[in-house]
Amino acid sequence: MTDSDPDLDAEQYEKHREAGEILAEARADTVDRLEVGASHAEIAAFAEDRIRELGGEPAFPLNISIDHEAAHATATVDDDRTIGEELVNIDIGVHVDGWLADSAVTVDLTGEWDDLVAASAEALDAAIDEIEAGVETGEIGAAIEAAIDDRGYNPVVNLTGHGLGRWEQHAAPNIPNREVSQGTTLEAGDVVAIEPFATDGRGKVSEGTHEEIFALEHEGSIRNRDARKALEQITEEFRTLPFATRWLDVRRPEMALRRLQQQDIVHGYPVLQEAEGTMVSQKEHTVIVTEDGCEVTTRSE
Q1: For this structure, is 170 an active site residue?
Q2: Is 67 a catalytic residue?
Q3: Helices (H), 62-182
Q4: What pLDDT sits at residue 6?
Q5: pLDDT cut 90: percent of the chain above it
Q6: pLDDT digits over 91-108, tens only?
Q7: How far apart are CA 63 and CA 69, in angstroms?
Q8: Annotation says 301 is catalytic
Q9: H-helix or E-strand containing 208?
Q10: Residues ≥6 apart with Cβ < 8 Å to 20
Q11: 225-233 and 253-262 helices, crossing angle to 10°
Q12: Strand 285-290 with 293-296, pairing
């Protein structure tokens, strides 16, 4: 970052901070709506509309992960699901002019998983305490793993935190959720999302068969009118950021996406999940690394 234009750097960080402030408020308002009987579709629409009302744009569709699901679950087109007495994780992203903030929180509507929710939250706090310029990402992973172990659970080892670039939700460096011998050294100015996942399962998620979130792989030409219209919306509105099927303004969005996938123009994100019958919690914040610590951009006042 030291070789870049300082004025551009200043603008970048202010937009990261603005995105974080918007996210914190939208996250709190969305959590207030999480209750048994609430509609997946209405919660997703509320969160995404609230982001826009506050002056940002969704960086990706609101993830609503239930029980053993860890990531990439969102409301579908004409979704009629409602929330039950479940473990509910919401992962929310905001961008301002392409500069991102990313955060997640788990809400226990079962009344039985307070310890699991605490495991990921305490792991996040432990990770944030480790962060400063010069720290190795493996040390952050070790702090996450130890905090989750202390609660008697397992970290999800094949999910990681990540850097945030402009119009790029997952950038270098990866932040492991366990101790690793070789990692990356963080530098002042790095913007990273730290996201511990804790589970009573084996600690390894696999891909489900369902996809509702997609992203542009590369631009291309396609003959089908709906697919062409969808691609125009994707490239102009979402660019390289993830989007939901339900966001597309075409007659048959599922068919349009199928055609775009067949041409490798877009790729999908399968729902990531632990084994059925297990539970997963997540807690996430975005931070800006400083010389002697970090600034958390997504923390509520």
Answers
A1: yes
A2: no
A3: 114-130, 137-150
A4: 54
A5: 94
A6: 999 999 999 999 999 999
A7: 10
A8: no
A9: strand 206-216
A10: 94, 101, 103, 286, 296, 297, 298, 299
A11: 90
A12: antiparallel
